[in-house]
Amino acid sequence: MRVVTNERRIKSKRRIAQYLFVISLVILIGGLIVSNFGPKTMEFAIIAPCLVLPIGFATTLLSVRMTNQFVRLPHPDEAIGEGLKGINRRSILYNYILQPNHVLVAPQGVFSLTTRWQETGFEVDGEKWYNAKGRGPLAPIFLFLKQERLGDPFKQARQEAESIQAIVDEALPSAKIVVRPAVVFTSNKAKLEVDEPALPVVYADPKKRPSLKALLKDEKKKDEISLDDEQIAALDKAFRGNQRDLVENETA
After folding, report:
1. Is the previous residue joined to 210 through a cis bond, with omega within 30 degrees of 0?
2. Cβ contacts of residue 51 below 8 Å, gap of 6+?
3. Are 248 and 7 in contact (CB under 8 A)?
4. Half-sphere exposure of residue 167, counting CA atoms within 13 Å on the CB side?
5. What is residue 170's predicted lDDT score, i.e. its pLDDT?
6. Calpha distance 177→172 (Å, rounded)
7. pLDDT at res. 120
8. How far from 84 is each of 25, 105, 158, 192, 212, CA to CA, in Å?
9. What SS3 string covers the chain?
């Protein structure tokens, strides 16, 4: 399997996350200092906190969110790459090149991979998700502060699949290939209980079930259209577009 990654985008996002963390600390600490040692007037005592606290709070939340996505281990691109080792060598994994952060082109088809890093237990029943940490009156507040809210994985997965469907249709207009979305949990600490999910919900780790690698094996058994070398090459050209400085590696 080949892995094509936009390393520049990854480094940029991680750098922004680090800068935002430092900026949020400077704002909060600076606001505390100014509040204690600034002018002792009623107007200043009211205006200073009203300006500093919202800005500091917003930058902190944004920093935490970007840290969770791009800095927190395991990195999604690395977890998916490790989990897919050993699959068909004609397959190509694209990281941070298209609107979906991760797209897999394999003989079995085209897959948009929507990742989640959360390290807790989830129950999936059809379209419904149940978060073990989301129960209790204060749970939503703590999830918001830690930026651990799950969101709507299925909605996001469908939107990401649709965003590249047009590219696939243009590159292979007569192939009738449908981009298949899947939700991938990158942390081994996540615990999934899946009951006929609306879309595939899998682990990146091939040792756990259900796994992304096992999903590809199941798709291979189906009697559906498979991609040949020319079609994979056409999609590769379409996905890369005019982007330069992409890093390409090959896994075992």
Report:
1. yes
2. none
3. no
4. 23
5. 95
6. 8
7. 83
8. 39, 12, 22, 19, 7
9. CEEEECHHHHHHHHHHHHHHHHHHHHHHHHHHHHHHHCCCCHHHHHHHHHHHHHHHHHHHHHHHHHHHHHCCCCCHHHHHHHHCCCCCCCCEEEECCCCCCEEEEECCEEEEEEEECCCCEEEEECCEEEEHHHCCCCHHHHHHHCCCCCCCHHHHHHHHHHHHHHHHHHHCCCCCCCCEEEEEECCCCCEEEEECCCCCEEECCCCCCCEHHHHHHHHHHCCCCCCCHHHHHHHHHHHHCCCCCCEEEECC
Q: What are phi and psi of 220, to 5 degrees?
A: -65, -30
Edge-to-edge strand list for the sheet holding 128-131: 128-131, 121-125, 191-195
Token pair, residue 211, equals 């796994």
Residues of the chain where predicted confidence (pLDDT) is lower than 70? 35-38, 40, 42-45, 47-48, 132-148, 223-225, 252
pTM: predicted TM-score of the whole model, two decimal places: 0.86
Please answer whether residues 102 and 95 qualify as being in contact, where contact means their C-beta atoms are separated by less than 8 angstroms: yes
- The residue ranges of every structural domain in the chain are 4-70, 74-250
Q: At 209, which amino acid appears?
A: R
